[in-house]
Design goal:
The protein has 194 residues and is α/β, with parallel strands linked by helices. It has a domain at 74-186: Endonuclease Chain A (Endonuclease, Chain A), CATH 3.30.870. Helices cover 43% and strands 14% of the residues. The chain is built from six helices and five strands. It has a five-stranded mixed sheet with strand order 3-2-1-4-5, with helices on one face. The relative contact order is 0.17. One of its GO terms (biological process) is cardiolipin biosynthetic process. Pfam families: PLDc_2 (PF13091). This is Cardiolipin synthetase. It comes from Psychrobacter phenylpyruvicus. Residues 85-191 form the Phospholipase D-like domain.
């Protein structure tokens, strides 16, 4: 009886390994060649923007120092991001590990889109680990000529993402935990929204 049970367990384990190996082989896709993608660079600070005129005098009085203001309340931090997006005149550089397809995510995305409509260059870098189900939204926003969305360490398997770990675990296990929202190259909010 014990030998029969061990044989069944062993057969199950071997079958499971074979099945997982087959799934890994069938779902493996290499990343697309991106050697001819458009390069994107930091733009120098324009001293004529509203934010520059507000902050450059303090920066000149205190060279080499940074000004810090603690946003301890999540609502205040969220409103500060919306305010920065509304104040930006030249650039918005935004990086997030988690961007959800929820009310907060939609309001922030809308603020970025409105900035782009005003002529602001918007660059959004998101960790692809947390963008599941957002491909259509991101593609439509990325179609705007003033918006560039890039995904860090993208999953090739878009619908069943966990399968990607079977064939590409070591690459996909590297994640980007950046959390920053920078307007006109001068004012940055770091940390999570919540």
């Amino acid at each position: 009886m014990l030998i029969k049970t061990l044989k069944i367990v062993l057969l199950f384990i071997v079958s499971l390994i074979a099945l997982l190996s087959l799934v890994a082989i069938l779902t493996y896709q290499s990343l697309p060649d991106n050697t001819d993608r458009t390069e994107s660079h930091y733009l120098p600070v324009d001293p004529n923007t509203t934010l520059a005129q507000q902050f450059l005098p303090s920066m000149q009085q205190h060279p080499g120092l940074s000004g810090i203001y603690l946003l301890a309340d999540s609502h205040e931090a969220f409103l500060a991001r919306l305010s920065l997006a509304a104040s930006a005149q030249k650039t918005l550089d935004v990086q997030y590990y988690i961007w959800r397809d929820d009310t907060t995510g939609h309001l922030l995305m809308q603020s970025l889109y409105q900035a782009a409509e005003r002529g602001v260059r918007v660059r959004l870098l998101l960790d692809d680990n947390n963008t599941g189900g957002m491909d259509e939204l991101l593609a439509s926003v990325n179609a705007h000529p003033n918006i560039e969305i890039r995904l860090f360490n993208p999953f090739m398997q878009r619908r069943f993402r966990p399968l990607g770990y079977l064939s590409d675990f070591f690459r996909l296990n590297r994640r980007m935990h950046n959390k920053s929202f920078t307007a006109d190259g001068l004012v940055t909010i770091t940390g999570a929204v919540t």
